[in-house]
Amino acid sequence: SRLTNLGNLEMTWRSSVHFHPLLVRILHKSRLRYYGKPEKKADMPYQAYFEVADGSGMMSMVLWSSLCPEWYSSMKVGTVLLLEEYAVKESYPFKTQPTPGDPEMKRFATIEISLNVRNPPTKISIIPEEMVKPEWGLPEVKYRFVTRSELDDLPHNYSCDVIGLVTFLGRAERVRKREHGEDFWLYRWAHAVDGTSDQPFILELFATSQPDVFERIHPMTYLVCTQMRVVRDVTEHAANTIYLTTSNESQIFITGWHKGQPYTKDAKVQNFIQWTKSQSEVIQIKKTVIGGYYPFPRPPENFSKY
């Protein structure tokens, strides 16, 4: 009876000092961000964004500082949270925005929920899924899965989710975050097939905040990648190259990590599982490759075009 909702929070936040508890479900989760600098003395300079929702709509939630190592791993997409003693602030205008699986969902973009270890000290409770009641009206997690046969028709920067059987995995490579900086992004290329096309998904997988999964991707695993962005190379001399790259909110799952994930109920995921049951493992293994240098997007065939 003491609960509030996100819609009410947006209307009343300026006139309130203490906020009633919130009951929300996590729909999106960003990678963990480290913002430490040598000249600044911060104990735990970490931050993570989540998009949370209830029956009234969706809002950003920020996890700060020492709450990140304590809570980040247990806050998964689909997790239901009871939040007490949180702060509300105007939203940061330059953060990335994930594409909601439900286009009808209302987004409250003017404010964000701030979870801190003090001022005030937030109380976070995870509600087990079996205790979640339908009358709470919490939305289900929805996805935008596409098949390989649908990919060629999608526009540049389109956000989607994919599932496939890994047939190629390149070695881990590094690229500088800034031209003269000392920080690097770690990434690897992968191919995955789903039986709907002769062509594989070409995936540029940057290391997210899931090192245990990133390091264990291998051929013949079932790979799910969420919140991927379509990249089309439409320059004059390039072959019409299309691939998918991870975004700030991408999550990656492989065989062994799928159990209990919300996407297992999705129709396209179910269709993919049925397709894999019809495949010969021996034949598929013969088609797989691992490691080596993978130049992509490929340069033109002759030097004059280059």
Quick take:
This protein is mainly beta and 306 residues long. 12% of the residues lie in helices and 34% in strands. It folds into 2 domains: 131 residues, Nucleic acid-binding proteins (OB fold (Dihydrolipoamide Acetyltransferase, E2P), Beta Barrel), CATH 2.40.50; 153 residues, Beta Barrel (OB fold (Dihydrolipoamide Acetyltransferase, E2P)), CATH 2.40.50.140.
If you had to describe this structure to a student in words, what would you say it looks like?
Pfam families: RADX. This is RADX protein. One of its GO terms (molecular function) is single-stranded DNA binding. This protein has helices spanning 6-12, 67-71, 148-151, 211-214, 267-277, 281-286, and strands spanning 22-29, 33-34, 46-54, 57-64, 80-84, 87-90, 107-115, 123-127, 159-169, 173-176, 184-193, 201-206, 222-233, 241-246, 252-253, 289-290. The protein is mainly beta and 306 residues long. It folds into 2 domains: 6-136, Nucleic acid-binding proteins (OB fold (Dihydrolipoamide Acetyltransferase, E2P)), CATH 2.40.50; 148-300, OB fold (Dihydrolipoamide Acetyltransferase, E2P) (Beta Barrel). The strands form 2 sheets. Strands 1, 2, 3, 4, 5, 6, 7 and 8 form an 8-stranded mixed sheet that branches. Strands 9-11-12-14-13 form a 5-stranded mixed beta barrel. Strand 10 and strand 11 (184-193) form a beta hairpin.
